[in-house]
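Sequence design from tokenized structure. All designs in this work follow the same two-part layout: the structure record, then the generated sequence. An example of the structure record is given first.
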């Protein structure tokens, strides 16, 4: 928590002014009952109207000064708190950008969203209270106590007897509530997870009329969240009636013993009224302290969750002395480097079976390899190791003979044009989507990339051509159109390494062949790894690799494998047979 509070440092002026102005308000508040007592005792009781007027004016002045303090404190504390949370969110976002997939899977994207949203808001609220109530309430308690003692030490004993045990009770309530609030935030994560999955898969939900089931799933998570929140709030809000009851008892006692003293003449009526006022101030301050402590227990939970994000070390980071100049030379000649998998074993975090099992494969400089294999064979896993989305558990990957771990990942990724199996586009224009990796590219370059990806023609048919604005995730395009935009995006920087993960699965055979031809023409010397399903890719590649259960089953040319590998023949026979079925 303290670590996070250092985010207030740049706003130290506001963070200092706020409590100072609060001190002004509190001192003015503390004056009021005293002034009132003097109006009652000297003005009303002795008929001194001038005194009533003077003291009344003084009270008004105090009230005004108090107002200035109160408003000032609100202004500065909200300024500091909002700036605090804004900076915190900024740094959290920056931290998540450095995360590797392993980090993201560990925390969970839904939870990250709660942490940047709800948890930071919790902390903001706490900072606000810290700058206001944290000063106000204890000052009021101590000040009122001092004033009460000044009026009548004997009566103040009653308050002294009540306040400390109340603090004890408050402390216990807070201790109980901290773990409950931790649960509340976890349940909120769960609610967000359902919501996120639902929105991301809304087409599936609608297509399979899953709305009702989704609603039930959401209701369950939501009810769970509400239940946890209610349990936590029950405990916390218990402090208000408890405090009220205890202090009402104290006031009755004060009235009783105070009344006796007034009768005996050792206390004036005005003083008794002032004393009761101070007692009430203590009551309301204790309630605010209760709220502050409650806020603190929630903020502590939030701080832990936020700090966990900061504590998460990106798994894949640049080495202290990244090596790259030699490779740079490779890239500058426009020729892709050799990529070598040396006995690579890789397991997804938490997976039982390795996705790649002691796999050895060399893709020569500038060569194109087509990977075939059934679903789950490890094709995407193999591709994902090249830009270091994950690191191999055993063995090594080498680029032009250099271990990937000796390279700066950002530089490495800059050398790679990657088309993912699942196309992701962003809201924005077609042009901006294609230019994602090289925002400065000119219109001619964008068009060349689009032409190679066979996207140019359909883009021109869009309402505003290249300036057509896509909806969220490119929802208004067909799957094949989105794939072609993703390919154009990967081609635009003319990367020396190209990776296509089933990038043409949603286009027809003829278009697939044209795309492969376009890529070859645009980047004749790139080293290219592609996952494919149809013969066109095998024919366009220099050689073919068949994967099964994370191992290489067969390797060779299309023609060679057709004659030597039964598994490979099976892949293509299946397709030919299917096409026959559909044609007949
Ligand atoms: N994020 C993941 N976490 C755990 N296991 C995964 C993950 N992605 C894929 N796998 C598993 O790893 C294996 C290889 O997957 P993948 O490389 O995606 O196969 P392919 O692309 O050939 O269909 C499969 O058994 C799959 O279930
Ligand atoms: Mg895959």
């Amino acid at each position: 928590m303290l670590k996070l509070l250092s985010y207030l440092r740049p706003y130290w002026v506001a963070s200092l002014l706020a409590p100072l102005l609060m001190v002004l308000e509190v001192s003015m508040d503390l004056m009021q009952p005293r002034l009132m007592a003097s109006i009652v005792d000297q003005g009303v009781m002795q008929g001194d109207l001038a005194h009533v007027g003077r003291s009344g004016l003084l009270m008004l002045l105090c009230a005004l000064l108090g107002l200035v303090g109160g408003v000032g404190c609100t202004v500065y504390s909200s300024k500091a708190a909002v700036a605090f949370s804004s900076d915190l969110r900024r740094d959290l976002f920056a931290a998540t950008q450095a995360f590797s997939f392993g980090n993201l899977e560990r925390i969970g994207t839904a939870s990250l969203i709660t942490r940047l949203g709800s948890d930071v808001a919790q902390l903001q609220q706490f900072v606000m209270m810290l700058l206001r109530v944290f000063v106000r309430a204890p000052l009021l308690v101590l000040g009122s106590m001092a004033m009460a003692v000044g009026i009548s030490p004997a009566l103040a004993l009653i308050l002294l007897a009540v306040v400390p045990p109340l603090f004890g009770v408050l402390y216990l309530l807070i201790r109980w509530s901290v773990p409950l609030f931790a649960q509340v935030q976890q349940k909120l994560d769960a609610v967000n997870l359902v919501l996120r999955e639902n929105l991301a898969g809304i087409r599936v939900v609608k297509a399979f009329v899953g709305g009702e089931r989704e609603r039930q799933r959401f209701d369950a998570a939501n009810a769970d969240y509400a239940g946890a929140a209610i349990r936590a709030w029950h405990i916390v809000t218990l402090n208000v009636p408890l405090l009220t009851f205890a202090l009402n008892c104290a006031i009755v006692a004060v009235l009783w013993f105070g009344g006796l003293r007034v009768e005996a003449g050792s206390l004036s009526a005005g003083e008794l009224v002032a004393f009761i006022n101070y007692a009430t101030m203590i009551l309301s301050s204790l309630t605010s302290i209760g709220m502050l402590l409650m806020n603190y227990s929630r903020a502590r939970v939030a701080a832990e969750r936020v700090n966990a994000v900061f504590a998460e070390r990106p798994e894949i980071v640049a080495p202290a002395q990244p090596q790259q100049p030699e490779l740079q030379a490779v890239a500058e000649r426009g020729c892709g480097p050799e990529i070598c998998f040396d006995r690579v074993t890789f397991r997804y975090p938490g997976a039982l079976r390795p996705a790649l099992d002691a796999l050895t494969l060399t893709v020569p400089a500038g060569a194109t390899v087509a990977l075939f294999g059934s679903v789950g064979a490890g094709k995407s896993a193999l591709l994902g190791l090249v830009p270091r989305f994950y690191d191999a558990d055993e063995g090594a990957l080498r680029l032009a003979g250099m271990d990937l771990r000796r390279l700066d990942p950002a530089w490495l990724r800059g050398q790679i044009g990657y088309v993912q199996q699942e196309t992701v586009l962003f809201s924005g224009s077609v042009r901006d989507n294609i230019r994602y990796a090289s925002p400065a590219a000119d219109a001619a370059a964008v068009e060349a990339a689009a032409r190679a990806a066979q996207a140019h023609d359909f883009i021109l048919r869009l309402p505003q051509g290249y300036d057509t604005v896509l909806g969220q995730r490119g929802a208004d395009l067909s799957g094949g159109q989105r794939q072609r935009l993703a390919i154009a995006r990967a081609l635009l920087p003319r990367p020396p390494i190209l990776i296509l993960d089933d990038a043409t699965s949603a286009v027809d055979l003829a278009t697939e062949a044209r795309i492969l031809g376009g890529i070859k023409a645009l980047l004749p010397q790139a080293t290219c790894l592609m996952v494919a399903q149809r013969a066109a890719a095998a024919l366009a590649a220099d050689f073919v690799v068949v994967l099964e259960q994370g191992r290489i089953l067969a390797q060779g040319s299309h023609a060679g494998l057709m004659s030597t590998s039964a598994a490979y023949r099976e892949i293509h026979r299946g397709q030919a047979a299917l096409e026959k079925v559909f044609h007949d």
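The mean pLDDT is 89. We note this feature because it recurs in several other targets discussed in the main text.
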